[in-house]
Amino acid sequence: MQKSVLAAERGAAHTSVDDAASKLDAALAAEDVKMFMQELNRVIKQRGGFTAAARAARLNRTALYKIVSEEGNPALNTLVALLGPLGLRLSIKPIEDFVAGDATGAELKADAYAVSTDRVSLREE
Predict the structure, then answer these.
(1) Distance (Å, whole) CA 9 – CA 109
(2) Rounded to whole angstroms, what are the CA distances from 84 to 50, 53, 110?
(3) 11 burial via Cβ count (<10 Å: 0-12, 13-18, 19+)
(4) What is d(CA 21, CA 14) in angstroms, rounded to the nearest whole number?
(5) Is residue 58 a contact partner of residue 81, using CB atoms and an 8 Å limit?
(6) How confident is the model at residue 9, as a pLDDT?
(7) CA torsion sign, 20 to 39 to 30 to 106?
(8) Closest by alpha carbon to 77, among 86, 90, 68?
(9) Does pLDDT of 31 surpass 50?
(10) Where are the domains of the chain?
(11) How many CA atoms lie within 13 A of 70 on its CB side?
């Protein structure tokens, strides 16, 4: 009886991680940083809380609150350190709008790599 309960808990945890990964990926696909940070905040609370996440990622708990706030802008190394203990990782996939270039290399559509922040825009004008 106890084994089936543990198996059910593992299955629920796996589904929870899959659900979190799907929601975080959807936020990134939509280029919605605010939604990504809200979902990351929810995942941290669901997977043991800020104290446990901060300890596992070797971050200051107060700093972690700021990092995952809606206005947060974590460095890549911070995000990678945080996602691992949550059972998640970043992954890179090709963009479907990728256009093959000529023999000298590849060419991206302008909208495929446009990224904006408050201070800088990488979009070619």
Answers:
(1) 45
(2) 14, 10, 32
(3) exposed
(4) 10
(5) yes
(6) 41
(7) negative
(8) 90
(9) yes
(10) 2-92
(11) 2
Q: What is the dihedral sign for C-alpha 31, 37, 39, 44?
A: positive
How many CA atoms, within 13 angstroms, populate the side-chain half-sphere of residue 89?
A: 4
85: DSSP letter:
G
Contacts of 21 (CB under 8 A, 6+ apart): 88
If pLDDT is split at 50, 70 and 90, which confidence band does 122 have? very low
Taking the C-alpha atoms of residue 72 and residue 51, their distance in angstroms, rounded to an integer, is 18
Burial class (CB in 10 A: 0-12, 13-18, 19+), 64: buried
Measuring CA to CA, which residue among 88, 106, 101, 107 is closest to residue 28?
A: 88
Q: Record the pTM.
A: 0.65
